[in-house]
Structure formats: C-alpha cells, structure tokens
UniProtKB/TrEMBL annotation:
Coiled coil: none annotated. This is Quinone oxidoreductase. The keyword Oxidoreductase applies. Residues 10-319 form the Enoyl reductase (ER) domain. One of its GO terms (molecular function) is NADPH binding. One of its GO terms (cellular component) is cytosol. It comes from Nocardia veterana. It comes from the Bacteria. The keyword RNA-binding does not apply. Keywords: NADP, Oxidoreductase.
C-alpha cells in the first residue's frame, strides 16, 4: 500500500510517500480501506520529536474508511461497515489497522472528509466544554484560535448553550468564520488582549479560557480570567508554555490551570461512545458543522503540515489517499 513514512524527526519534508506492506491485524482489530485521514496539530509535535515516537513510523491517528477485513474475535463490526477513529496510529495510509475499542460507526450521510476529521477535534471540543469546565448559560468564555479545527467546533458547542464566546484570530477572513460559528466578540492577539476581554466582561474576566495556542497566549489567558476562573491549556500551536510558578495563581484570583489530553477524557468505551455519539449525531442532524478547510492528496502530507503550522488553514484538514 501507499503510505507516508517518517524515517527521522524534522520538518515537514520528512513526511515521505512510500510503498509499505499492508498492516497485519490482530484478533480485535479491523483492516480499513482509508477514505480520508485527519491532520492534527499533534501530528506536527510527533513529527518534530517534541512528543516521543520511535522512527520509522507512519504518522496520523485519525481517519475514516470502509472495513475490508476483521480480526478473529471481532463481533461488533463487519466487512463493508463505515467507521471512523481518532486513535489508530499509522492513519496517513491507504490501509489502517484500527482497534475495535476506538472504532466508531459513521452515519451514511456524513461525508468522508467530515467523518475523517470530526472525532479528534470534535471530541476535544466536547470534553473541554462538557467535562473540563462546563460553563453555565450566560457565562462568558475565551477561545483562542477561533477559526481553527477545535476552535470552530468549540465555539459552536458553546454558542448552542447560550454561552457568550470571545475568540481570537489572526486575520479578517478567520474573523468572519469565527463569527459564523457563533462567536459573540472576535479579537486579535496582542498586548491589550486581556484588557479587551475585561472591557467585554464589565471588568470581571471570563469564567474559562480554552487555550490551544500555548506560549504566545498563556499570559493573556491568565490575565483574562475572573476570580476562580479555569484555564484549560490544551495545546501549544505557538510553542510549549515555559515552567510556571504556581504561587502566581493565588493573587491572580485563586485560578485553576489544567493541561488535559483527549486520551484521559475517552478512558473507556462508554466515555468514547458518549462523546463520539454526541459529535456524530450533531453533525448528522446539522447542528454541528465541520468546516473542511482543505483536502490534500495523501502524497502531499508535507504541504498540509506546512500550511497548518504557517496558520494558513481554517477548520479541519484531511489527506485523501
Ligand atoms: N489536548 C488535547 O486533547 C488536544 C486535542 C486536539 C487538539 N489539541 C490542540 O489544539 C490546538 C488546535 O489544534 P487544531 O488541530 O484544531 O489546529 P488549528 O487550531 O486548526 O490550527 C492552529 C491555529 O492556532 C493558531 N496559532 C496561533 N499562533 C500560532 C503559531 N505561532 N503557530 C501556529 N498556529 C498558531 C492559528 O490560528 P490564527 O492564525 O487564527 O491564530 C492556527 O490556525 C493545537 O494546539 C492542538 O495541539 C489538543
């Protein structure tokens, strides 16, 4: 099969299309013909070696496709089923071995690109707003990178619950997308960001900040919180936040900071199917829109990473074998 392989950590150029053997499935795995693979920021952290990963490896963890074969002990899925997943290593490939524990059925009317990119970012948005800090209707939150994959989904989930959403974006085009998703106020990054947030909240600050940008926004995020506010630092698109003195949380308002990850919020099959079901059903009934910002041929994975890291993308992006 054709797949992307990484033989050494580095820039996007280490993502090389090559011929490799088909994966061999275990008794509780599905062999899936990939329709599309999701591209996520975490794929760039793994590619550079920021997150540990032995080489060589096939990148990607998310996708959708049609089951071509099932392992000896599989009972819940059968050949021909359409499935999606957010945690199957080696997803930048024409065929992927997917554990049944992470496979989710895809409603017929959900297009491949949407199914391939909805789960990782969608379940992240879901756990952030449902389980990390669940704002009450009328509360105000701040979401960074409001036109990104997670940002657009998180904004829609919040707006549907009558939560006031302030977002940050870098361009006018992204501002428009963020507003369409339901943002109440769209700001630019900058020195006066926290000041602007306070003006929009009558001086009080927001109940929670959902920050996937990291190094560049962390200080403004803290300074934007109300007393006992929650900072959910869920990513590092601009770089990792440096070591931090916990004592600072005290005078700043007895603040909370958490650094969550999806795996810990999809700990068992019941939690995974709850979140995935909510996301897929909302997509199928039209209440949650997944914006596919770009589709790239599988062989152009390097370009997809370049565009994602250069802030050129909006919404979700996928690779199509
Ligand atoms: N912890 C978890 O469970 C989890 C799960 C999924 C994703 N994440 C994290 O969530 C974040 C968003 O992921 P995503 O896949 O949806 O990506 P994305 O938001 O579509 O792309 C990242 C966005 O971050 C903004 N950004 C600000 N400063 C940046 C910089 N210096 N370099 C690059 N981008 C910058 C850009 O938007 P503007 O141009 O508008 O600033 C860019 O489009 C990432 O940090 C990712 O690691 C975490």
């Amino acid at each position: 099969m054709r797949a992307i392989q990484v033989s050494e950590h580095g820039g996007p150029e280490v993502l090389v299309a090559t011929e490799v053997d088909d994966p061999v499935i275990g008794p509780n795995q599905l062999l899936v013909d990939t329709e599309a693979a999701g591209v996520n920021f975490i794929d760039t952290y793994i590619r550079t070696g920021t997150y540990p990963q032995p080489v060589p490896y096939i990148p990607g963890s998310e996708g959708t496709g049609v089951v071509a074969a099932v392992g000896a002990e599989v009972t819940d899925f059968t050949v021909g089923d359409r499935v999606a997943w957010a945690a199957a290593p080696g997803s930048y490939a024409e065929r992927v071995a997917v554990d049944t524990a992470v496979a989710v059925a895809v409603p017929d009317r959900v297009p491949a690109a949407v199914a391939a990119s909805a789960l990782l970012q969608g379940m992240t948005a879901h756990y952030l707003i449902e389980s990390v800090y669940k704002p009450a209707p009328g509360e105000t939150i701040l979401v960074h990178a409001g036109a990104g994959g997670v940002g657009l989904l998180l904004t829609q989930l919040a707006a549907a619950r009558d939560i006031r959403v302030i977002t940050t974006v870098s361009t006018d085009a992204k501002e428009e997308l963020s507003r369409e998703a339901g943002a109440t106020h769209v700001l630019r990054y900058g020195d006066d960001l926290a000041q602007r947030v306070r003006e929009l909240t009558a001086g009080e600050g927001v109940a929670a900040v959902y920050d996937g940008v990291g190094a560049a926004t962390f200080e403004a995020s803290l300074a934007s919180l109300r007393i006992r506010g929650m900072l959910a630092l869920f990513g590092a698109a601009s770089g990792q936040v440096p070591p931090f003195d916990l004592q600072r949380l005290n005078p700043a308002g007895s603040l909370f900071v958490t650094r969550p990850t999806l795996a810990h919020y999809t700990r068992d099959r019941a939690e995974l199917t709850w979140r995935a079901g909510d996301v897929m059903n909302a997509i199928a009934d039209g209440t949650l829109r997944v914006r596919i910002g770009a589709e790239y041929p599988l062989a152009e994975a390097a370009q997809a990473h370049r565009d994602l890291q250069a802030r050129k993308t909006t919404g979700s992006i996928v690779l199509v074998p």
